[in-house]
Amino acid sequence: MPEDSSRRQFLQLTGSAFSGTWLASHWPALLAVAQSACVARDKGLGFSHLAPELAADIAAIAAQIIPTDDTPGATEAGVIYFIDGALDTIMKGAGGMLAKGVNELNARLTQHYGSKRFSQLDTEAQLAVLRDEEQSALFGTVRFLTVAGMFAMPQHGANKDRVGWDLLGFDSRHGWQPPFGHYDAEETSGD
Predict the structure, then answer these.
(1) What pTM value is reported for the model?
(2) How confident is the model over 135-145, as pLDDT tens digits?
């Protein structure tokens, strides 16, 4: 990703990667993941599938994918709980791949950073490491799960306090009244 890209551009590009067919076929599983993640997050429970050090590393990767700056990011949205829950449903079997990928990443870090794990590096070092990882299966999987968790329905999982929706400017309402936009404003104004 070019360094001059904005967060919004990144989210738009990442969002376009989602396939409607994939989402439609996996929607019930996504909702189940999100619901159990919501309970774990809100009750402060431990993780079901991630060891604490692995969870810290994955959470740190997610925090660089959607960072906290003048707006909340993946950390505030609680996406690590969504990721943990996904390992029991839509990503069943991916836990080993994630653990192996993080362990290999941490092993490579020893050359430059000694015995520090990814989560123990400062932001600049984390970004430098992730630039080299952008094409890896580990990064692709964590990116997908981060974006899915960031924008899930809050009552079903991550996106705590609707921070993901607020980031996008999404206004969630039970019902809408016309006009819905510029395309029907004149028609519904009664003029």
Answers:
(1) 0.71
(2) 999 999 999 99
